[in-house]
Amino acid sequence: MSNDSNSVSPSSSDLTVIIDTGCANLNSVKFAFERLNANVVITADFDVIRSAARVVLPGVGTAGAAMAGLVEKDLVNLITSLTQPVMGVCLGMQMLASLSNEYGGRSNQAIECLNLVPTEIGDLDNKGLPLPHMGWNQITVTDHPLFTGIENGSYVYFVHSYRAPLSDYTLASCEYGETFSAAIGKGNFFGVQFHPEKSASVGAKILQNFLNMGKAQ
Amino acid sequence: MLAKRIVPCLDVREGKVVKGVQFRDHEIVGDIVPLAARYAQEGADELVFYDITASAHDRVIDKSWVSRVAEQIDIPFCVAGGIKTIEQAREKLAFGADKISINSPALTDPSLITRLQDEFGRQCVVIGIDSFYDSESNSYKVKQFTGDEAATKDTQWFTQDWVEEVQKRGCGEIVLNVMNQDGVRGGYDIEQLSMVRSICDVPLIASGGAGTMEHFKTVFEQAKVDAALAASVFHKGIIDIGELKQYLHTQNIAIRR
């Protein structure tokens, strides 16, 4: 049923926008959507972002640097005002939270994030395991539409040292030292800690589920 | 549970995948993108592309293929070879590489590790270490510029000291390549890898020596590495990645299937 959308041809009214946050890895996310024949652009243009069917907030690096980048590009108010599905990826997910304790050497204070999902990002309690948590790990999912057709125990690719704790806003969980949120969300804002664009067929399925959202314009 | 990673390494020279024995006498194995796609299809968990000539000859890799790989494969990959500056690293990441691996330039200027970490986060910063067992001094030592035999030289570093130094400076992962074992398929150096594991708090990738499926089992079980890298056994079809993962699964090692 949901696989029908694989054959839907892209049109300008079904645009997926990857916000150009100025961080380095934007192309891998774009390529992953293109492998699904999606109509996708990377941009920081306000009008294009506002008119998109769905929006991706990517990110690598530190929370402090990433938030500074959003402020510099004047994107904070724009992002928080969006009403279409918005998916954060990795650090992009963490930026949806209220606060992050990843200072990145810039200060000793918690970084104020977008405050779209009421949770706070903190250190992953690795219990002596190597950090970063890097590699393929298994997720337990909820019935959020992002995880339609994804089985519990599926492997996806993670790279991170900070995490969102389990909370009312957890959409999927994973275990590494502790059990933490592999995905969080509230309303039209949600995000995944792992990299669906690098998670082989499981990741492609999750991205396809995202493409199935926000179709009604 | 976090899966142990199987990582084919594609040594790149002049835009082709090559493989030498103990870093010498390189032979062409095949084209980059089709090989990368094949390994991803067979179940590789990650790929490493290493331009073996770049550091030694003071030039950076032709990066057009980085983008072509990123377009076609949906698993993570790391690019290594002659990355000496923030801008060179940014370029590889922008083309779609997930990580960049630094070896000789980090030995020349260890501050590069910290600067890369500050700019991109430590998860992108892999340090490759070419370590060899020096029988004269009965110790492990680090070599530099190993991509070219004529340029290869010893460094002041004992392997364990360098492993601790690169972590302190902010690397996110270490690839330990044991040179005495490279390309001869006699098995990973369990003793050395176990020693490094005991002082390594970041993910550790074993490299050098894989010849049989049992070697992978042993290095995961005994040296407790996070990933095992190999080249010739995959390129020459001696080990099939799918069969290897099936075997490791039956040996109760956590593997993505």
UniProtKB/TrEMBL annotation, chain B:
Enzyme Commission number(s): 4.3.2.10
Active-site residues, Swiss-Prot/TrEMBL: D11, D130
TM annotation in the entry: none
Alphabetized GO MF terms: imidazoleglycerol-phosphate synthase activity; lyase activity
Pfam families in the cross-refs: His_biosynth (PF00977)
InterPro entries, per the entry: Aldolase_TIM (IPR013785), His_biosynth (IPR006062), HisF (IPR004651), IGPS_HisA/HisF (IPR050064), RibuloseP-bd_barrel (IPR011060)
UniProt entry keywords in alphabetical sequence: Amino-acid biosynthesis, Cytoplasm, Histidine biosynthesis, Lyase
Recorded catalytic activity of this chain's protein: 5-[(5-phospho-1-deoxy-D-ribulos-1-ylimino)methylamino]-1-(5-phospho-beta-D-ribosyl)imidazole-4-carboxamide + L-glutamine = D-erythro-1-(imidazol-4-yl)glycerol 3-phosphate + 5-amino-1-(5-phospho-beta-D-ribosyl)imidazole-4-carboxamide + L-glutamate + H(+)
Highest taxon listed in the record's lineage: Bacteria
Enzyme class: lyase
CDD domains the record matches: HisF
Subcellular location: Cytoplasm
Pathway info: Amino-acid biosynthesis; L-histidine biosynthesis; L-histidine from 5-phospho-alpha-D-ribose 1-diphosphate: step 5/9
GO BP field: L-histidine biosynthetic process
One GO cellular component term: cytoplasm
Family recorded in the similarity comment: Belongs to the HisA/HisF family.
Subunit structure: Heterodimer of HisH and HisF.
Purpose: IGPS catalyzes the conversion of PRFAR and glutamine to IGP, AICAR and glutamate. The HisF subunit catalyzes the cyclization activity that produces IGP and AICAR from PRFAR using the ammonia provided by the HisH subunit.
NCBIfam families attached to this UniProt entry: hisF
Protein name: Imidazole glycerol phosphate synthase subunit HisF
Gene for this chain: hisF
